[in-house]
Every structure is written in structure tokens, then in C-alpha cells.
Amino acid sequence: MRLKSDYAIIKVQWKIKTNFDKNADNGGDLMDRSNSDKFLIIYNDLDKHMRECLQVKTGTPNSYLINQMAKNNRAFAKYKEDLLAFSRLRNAIIHNPFKKDADPIAEPHENVVKLYEDIKNQLTCPPSALSTVAVPRRNIYATSLESKVIDVMNIMVKKSFSHVPVLYDDRIVGIFSESTFFSYVSKNEDIAFSRDTFIGDFKDYIDVNGNVSEYYQFVEKGTLLIDVEEMFQGNLKDNKRLAVVFITENGKQNERLLGLVTVWDLAGYCR
């Protein structure tokens, strides 16, 4: 005769086994698997993602999926050659003519598996610039029209800041930079510059669209990291270079500043 406690134990054991089986069906814990198994799970996840995006027929080659995705997706285009190499490695592992004596025929290096997983994550869940490389608002040094120029410049030199947003109610009304200062001085030779010169005195030179050598871009908060990278790679516009990408709710200048990205932020970002 079984006691109620016996039935409780059996129920718990059955539940544990069921959960284990479900995990096994979904790839289980990658930590307990061989590198080739991990590699194939990543391949299958990414292959499924591409098929869902492209709505292709069953049996369509993986290499075709990669090439098609790369045509309209910057992230896939960036990693196209890596993905094609991984696809060939997968085929070598799966279509192994020596399975009886050597299974798997190839065991991917741990670094390769990690790279493949990182790429898969970036392709299936691409990160935004705001969540990765951008300097968040709380860490941005900003100033106001009432601030003294000498104080702002001292901080810029001390902290190696190249551009300082000029804010009113947390919205950008101008950008103070090195080029701003030199433009002011070159066109106002007869005007004395003193400790009592204010940022507001530079109002004709800090306009977001008025810089003679550089321009600024405003993007919405969900803009992908890879899209911001693309902006800086092709950054010449009317012979001006892209200096800063500012992030707001919907990519409009009159909205509250959420973050900013410079080329130095991208250079220092580790994926």
C-alpha cells in the first residue's frame, strides 16, 4: 500500500524527468555538451530564424539563406563570410563519410563556438546603440547658456571632451566644441574674451546645423548599434564629418537627450 508521501515523491520525480526531457529537446544545457553539439544547436537556431524571416521552402540550402539575408540586412552582410564558413563546417560534421571511425569528423574550437553564438545573438536579437555603446544621459557632461566658457573649456581639457551639449530643460539647443571656439575667435578678433564670457555669447556658433566642419545626427532610442556604426563609416556629408550621434525618444532635436555616441565610443566598445 502506497502512502500519500510516496505519491508526492513519484509526482516530483516525474516532473523533474519531464522538465529534463523538455530541456533535452530544446538543446538542453550547452555547458554539458561537446563543442560540435553546441555548434550544431547554434546553427539550427540561426537557420530557423532565417527561414522564418525569408519564408522559404523546406530544403532550401543554408548558404542561400545567408546570401539572401545579407542583401537587405547590414548585420548579416557584415558576418556573411563567417556564416558561410560555419555553414561549410556544419556540413562537414553532419555529412561525415567516416562516422564509423571518426564521429564527429571535426570538433570546433571553443573560441569558434563562442564567436558563432555571439554572432547568432547579434543577428537574432540585434543590440541597440543606447543599450551598448552610447554614453547614457546620466554620464554626459552638458552645459547651459548661462555657464561661463572658461569653466566649460577647463572641464573639456581636463576630461578630454571634444563636444559638450548645451541644454535647456534637458533638450539640446546647441553644441559647444573646439571648432565652435575657434570659429568665434576668428570672426570676433576685436571682441575681448574674458572670464565673464558666457556660452550664450556663442549663440551664433553653437547652432546644431551651423558648424562649418562637422555635423550631428539625431536618432531614435531603438536605433541599432550596427546602424550607428554605418553612419560613422560613411560619415562625410557636404564635406563635413559626423561628430556625434545624439539619441532621443523619436530622433528629434526638441526631445530630451537620452544618450550620445562618438567615434571614440565605438572604438572603445568591446563586443
Describe the fold and architecture.
The chain has helices at residues 4-25, 35-54, 62-72, 74-78, 80-94, 110-124, 149-159, 178-187, 225-233, 263-267, and strands at residues 135-136, 163-168, 171-177, 214-220, 241-248, 257-261. The chain has 271 residues and is α+β, with helices and mostly antiparallel strands. Helix 3 (62-72) runs antiparallel to helix 5.
**In which order are the strands of the major sheet placed?**
1-6-5-4
User: CATH topology of the largest domain, anyone?
Assistant: CBS-domain
What form results from the Cα inertia axes?
Answer: elongated
Biggest sheet statistics: 4 strands, mixed
What is Rg?
Answer: 28 Å
- Count of discrete domains: 2
Assembly type of the chains comes to single chain
CATH architecture assignment of the largest domain = Roll
What would you give as the CATH superfamily of the largest domain?
CBS-domain
Q: In which range does the helix fraction lie? A: 40-55%
CATH class of the largest domain: Alpha Beta
Helix-strand string:
HHHHHHEHEEHEHEEH
Report the end-to-end length measured between terminal Cα atoms.
60 Å
Q: How would you classify the helix and strand content by structural class? A: alpha+beta
Number of helices: 10
- Overall mean pLDDT score? 86
Q: What's the total number of strands?
A: 6
Model regions low in confidence, pLDDT < 50 over at least 5 residues = 1-25
